[in-house]
Amino acid sequence: MEITSSMNYKSKQDFLDNVHSKFSNEKEFLQAVEEVIGSIWDTVQQSQDYLDGNILDRIITPERVIIFRVPWLDDNGRVHVNLGYRIQFNSAIGPYKGGLRFHPKVNLGVLKFLAFEQIFKNSLTGLNLGGGKGGSDFDPKGKSDNEIMKFCQSFMTELSRHIGHNTDVPAGDIGVGGREIGFMFGQYKRIKNEFTGVLTGKKTDWGGSLIRPEATGYGTVYFVEEMLKTRNESISGKVATISGSGNVAQFACEKLIQLGAKPVTLSDSSGYIYDPEGITSEKLEFVKKLKENSSARISEYAKKYNVDFIEGKTPWEVKCDIALPCATQNELNEDDAKALTENGCFVVAEGANMPSTTEAVEHFIKEKILFGPGKAANAGGVAVSGIEMSQNSTRMHLSSEEVDNLLKGIMTRIHTTCVQYGDKGDFINYVDGANIGGFVRVADSMIDQGIV
Ligand code: NDP
Ligand code: 2IT
Predict the structure, then answer these.
(1) Is 133 an annotated catalytic residue?
(2) pLDDT band at residue 4, thresholds of 50, 70 and 90?
(3) Gap from CA of 280 to ligand 1 centroid (Å)
(4) For residues 57-66, average pLDDT
(5) pLDDT in tens, 328-382
(6) What whole-number distance in Å separates Cα of residue 355 and Cα of residue 285?
(7) Does the Cβ of 385 fall within 6 Å of ligand 2?
(8) Which strands make up the sheet holding 370-372, listed edge to edge?
(9) Ligand nearest, relative to CA of residue 248
(10) How far apart are CA 422 and CA 290, in angstroms?
């Protein structure tokens, strides 16, 4: 039923039409907004404060968007220029927080979707973290360490004016790991002459948290455990497909192995490997070493272990109980979703951000499978980033066990929040649960703080 708003819009469609006409070039951002609005619309209509405060227009508008030139010299002395971005989307519940992505397909629409999702994800963690995201259309593949360093230094030279440990705290994402965080941290420290927790995902010797590299993948699997408990099931013995072979995919795979599941696929943008015997700890160590070089291809696994490499395809055609998309946005479409459920898959948890298309999500919900959307399932990464910030502020270090226990507790609480807001009686709609649960805290904080 369409409830009519007493504010600026006649209906949900009227609001969405306006968003579409304003941001017609930002298709991923529109996709993310449409999904969130679909969940929160009724909640907004039922609150006079939200209506009077025009919370909808305010929450879809970034507080600040910074776009800048990043010039750098390659090893042959040639000058290159990339675009740098930081979207400071919402600071109602804490300093802007979110990763940096270096990938040739980065553009404003992609980063705005990521920053928008981050607002609700960060709220779900229960920590004081606002929403932000940034990055560049720089392609790290095929670059030397020296070129990566020069790019990172140039990128940080401008970014350093806009961030700070109490203002905006970036971290890694696709194409940005410990090495890039190191180069950017070094440059920030040099420019500002201060050693602060301005970035997370640092190496432990210089202020990083134990378990941060593992946190997104581990957290996704902890979220799967919680979802399975609602059906009196557990991870042990389940067959799992995973896409991606980077940070999130590797540590999701590791935790599945530890908990007795059998992961059978990994992928990259060239295709996927299918190992019907299961990816073991030893084989995973090979992948971790291989992927230290960002240009390396997962097809090397197939050669080494004599298994199939399926070129140009995604792993969703493989029979499994659990599917973990851990690569990138819109990597799992409606046909993939149908193939998964027809093959008996009943758990999908998004390690990546928005990996399932709108139609794929609708299919999972129609089939009433356990579907954990990214903003809930992959929140473990940013949660441990928050824990890294706390450690930096107190100049104390927690043990691996302490951080892992905090991570488990946060993932369990996020699951509880999803159930609280998404329980439909015969099934839990985790999409509604995560969107509404994440939204309410941010919206209430915005109302408390006035029209800013
Ligand atoms: P990495 O750079 O470590 O790995 C990315 C992986 O995804 C690689 O295997 C890469 O393959 C693959 N990939 C990237 N782009 C594409 C594409 N267009 N098509 C197919 N495959 C692609 O990144 P992360 O593991 O850190 O990030 C993966 C996902 O998880 C992203 O959606 C990110 O936003 C999300 N995420 C990350 C968090 C973190 O803490 N790192 C936290 C929460 C979410 P190739 O080498 O061929 O490009
Ligand atoms: O998408 C994400 O949550 C991240 N890339 C991690 C963000 C962070 O600040 O740790």
Answers:
(1) yes
(2) very low
(3) 21
(4) 98
(5) 999 999 999 999 999 999 999 999 999 999 999 999 999 999 999 999 999 999 9
(6) 25
(7) yes
(8) 262-263, 239-242, 322-324, 347-349, 370-372
(9) 1
(10) 40
Please give the distance, rounded to the nearest whole angstrom, from the Cα atom of residue 321 to the centre of ligand 2: 27
Give the pLDDT of residue 396.
96
Rg of the chain (C-alpha set): 21
Query: Tokens standing for 132?
Result: 């932000």
From the alpha carbon of 294, which atom of ligand 1 is closest?
A: 46
> Does residue 30 register a pLDDT over 50?
yes
Please check whether residue 72 is in contact with residue 147, taking contact to mean a CB–CB distance below 8 angstroms.
Answer: yes
Average pLDDT over residues 159-172: 98
Q: Which of 96, 176, 216 to mutate to test the pocket of ligand 2 (most atoms within 8 A of CB)?
A: 216
- Cβ of 381 less than 6 Å from ligand 2: yes
Non-local (6+) Cβ contacts of 233 within 8 A are: none
Cα 282 to Cα 185, 261, 287, distances in angstroms: 33, 15, 9
Atom of ligand 2 nearest to the CA of 212: 10
Q: Give the other-Cβ count within 10 Å of 189's Cβ.
A: 16
Interval between CA 99 and ligand 2 midpoint (Å) = 4
- Report the distance separating Cα 277 and Cα 291, nearest Å: 22
| Residue 190 CB-half CA count within 13 A | 11
- How many angstroms is it from 250 CA to the middle of ligand 1? 11
Q: Which of 12, 112, 133, 291 is catalytic?
A: 133
Pocket lining: 171 vs ligand 2, CB cutoff 6 Å: yes
CA pseudo-torsion sign 444, 88, 251, 383: negative
pLDDT tens digits along 401-429: 999 999 999 999 999 999 999 999 999 99
- Residue 7 pLDDT: 63
Give the model's pLDDT for residue 402: 98
Name the pLDDT band for 6 (thresholds 50, 70, 90).
Answer: low
